[in-house]
Structures are given as structure tokens and as C-alpha cells.
């Protein structure tokens, strides 16, 4: 009862309505389908990289204008979660999934059949925005179907999808654009996305517990219990106020929390560099005489690094478990930054190695091997920051992650726009060295927060001070 109103809740830990009580294989199937959907959306972001020549020829635009197709997609993908994220708390995960993914397919149709550059660019921005609806709730689904003590491995598996997607996109696109018209990039993607939508509808049920209880309450009212309500139905907030908070609080965190700003800047630079690579690799490897599809294959070592980084989860979980046993309680949030201490060092080392082995007098395999540790460091850095923000800013975790998303997407959208000009002005080696120095400048921050984060949190307006 709440204020005299009967409230629908689970009958206990064994209630069949709880998604935690589904068979383990079924819960893992949900994770696999959600991960493949996230992989599809993020793959779409970078598949445009090898369509630039076709777009430039057909619409008579410069490469910088064609590159806007990448930047606008990423910008839409990063900013729209501020708006659509709260909708899942109101209507559940499933409506956001299905509507978002259907619109994502529709806007890819707009890109595939565009007859001018404006139509293509608008389609790309709206496609990224629609895809963000899916990405904004996919991680929540993974958390819904596994207990906190079990969620580590499924969440690690899920996070590999959004990281691998942008890397695999150019590999697929390279083969398509070497042999077919550039529009086939989007026709093939539409077929793939349609299959993903079918899998989402068939395999992934509603997993958000308040939405499940809301359906249960509706059934009970239909059966005659007109007085019962679900917890979400007695929430006095309006959807407008929730969205307003969702849009404003992330920027309040960035403006008032130096620790959150530094960590978000760190991951934003890394994602900007990753998306810079989608323009840079053609500049680096064309002089070796590589064709379009072979340039696409040069992203494989980066992908291997990302996979290796993701597979290292048990090592870091072991560190955390031993620290828990040593303290006799849950460790402070700063313990999550441990893997980031290694990631933040690996990235600049990898970039300097990559920068000064891209001379054509050096065999191409040497520079490609250099991207493997960057992939590892990228994953470790992102995982450290993601988990730390959720734990350290637990009362406003969704807003902290939204702040990170907005900042990352802004950098990822901006970097490709100046990549070609930067490489032309500075030369390949010094352009890459410049971004390596950017990464080097971020090295002190994870070490500082690992040691002193608890002191920063004591003076924080938003952070958890436990």
C-alpha cells in the first residue's frame, strides 16, 4: 500500500515475472540480440567512409562535405539520448527499441535513395538520432536480466558491440564500394537492420521491471481490481519535467564537476581519434598501393585489440574481487579506474608507434601492429570511465553517462572534419603525433583520481560520498 493505494509488486525473488528468473540461455540470447543490434547501429556510423568518392562524384561536393555524413550521424547518435533516454523509464524498453529501430531503418532508406547531398545529410543525422534510441536503453536491458553479481561478463560482452561496430563498418564498406555502386552500402545495411528488427521483436521481451508491473496492474484492473496501481503510475512527475532534467543535468555535471569533466574529455579524445582513423587510414595506406577493400582490411588489427581488451574482463574482475575480500566490503569507486591506468598509458604509446612507422620505407605490417594496443587501451579506458561514473555518481548515474555521451559524440563528430586538412598541412607522421600528444596530456588524470578521487567526491554536489 502507498497512501492507501494498493501497489503491484513482485511476489518474491522467485516471481516468474522477474526477468532474472528466466533460463540463463534465454537471458544470454537476449544479450546477444541486443549486442548485435548495437553493433549494427555503430557499424552504420563508419560504413560511409568508403562512399565518399561516389558521393563526391554524383553530388559534386568536396570531401569535407561528404565527411559531414559521418559527423552528423555520430552527433545525432550522441545527443539524442538526452531526449529519448527518459522515455524508457516512462514507457519501457520495448517501445523505445521498436520505434527507434524502425525509424533507423526508415532514415537509412532516405540515405540510400537520396537525390541530393542535403537529403543524404539530413537522413544521416536523423538515422543517428533514431539509432541512439536503441543504444540509450540497450545497456539497461543487459542490467535488467542479470543480477549485479552476474552482470560483469554480459555487460563486457555487450560493450564490445558498440566498439567493434565502427571498426568493422569500413571493412564491410570497403568490399562493397570496391565492387558495387556506393548506394549498395545502404541497401545491404537496410536488409541487415530489418533482420535485426525481426530478432528484437521475436527474442527480446519487455525487461524494465516498472513497465512489467504496469502491464500486470493493467491486467488486474481489467479483471476488476480497479484500485490497484503500479509504482510507476503513482509517480507524480511529468514526462516534460523528466526530459527537462535529463537535458540540463548532464551539462550541470560537466560545468561543476572537474573530475567528471576530465574523465569525459579523456574518453572524448579517444573516440575522436577512433573516428579520425576512418579518414586517416586511406591517407596512410593508399601510398602502399592498397585498393579500397584492402584499406578496409587495415582496420582488422584495431578490431583485434578491442576484442583482446574485452576478453581481459576476468583479470580486472579478479582484482576487484580480491580488493573486496581484503577490505571486507565493497571497494570505493576509484578501484574501477585501475584498468584505466593501463589503458591511458597504452594509447599514447601505440599512437607514437603508429605515427613514426607510417613511412612507406617501413613495412605496412609494423604500423598495423601498432593499432592493436590502441584497441586494448581504448576498451580499458572506456570501461574504467563508464563503470566509475556509474558508481561514483550513483544518485545521478544516468545523467553522468549522458554527459559522457554528449561530449564523446561532439569530439567524434568534429575530428573527421579536420582530419584531411590536418594531414595535408602537417604530414601523416606529425598529424598522428599531435593526437598522440593529446592522449599523453590525459595520462595524469586517471592516476590522480585513482589516488585522490575520494577527496574530490567529498566536495562534490552530485557524487556519491560513501
TrEMBL record:
Keyword Membrane (UniProt): yes
Domain Major facilitator superfamily (MFS) profile: 30-454
One Gene Ontology MF term: transmembrane transporter activity
Domain of life: Eukaryota
Gene Ontology CC, one term: plasma membrane
Chain ranges passing through the membrane: 28-53, 65-84, 96-115, 121-143, 155-176, 188-213, 259-278, 298-319, 340-359, 365-389, 396-418, 430-450
Membrane-related topology note: Multi-pass membrane protein
Keyword Aminoacyl-tRNA synthetase annotated: no
Keywords: Membrane, Transmembrane, Transmembrane helix
Compartments (UniProt record): Membrane
Name the record gives this protein: Major facilitator superfamily (MFS) profile domain-containing protein
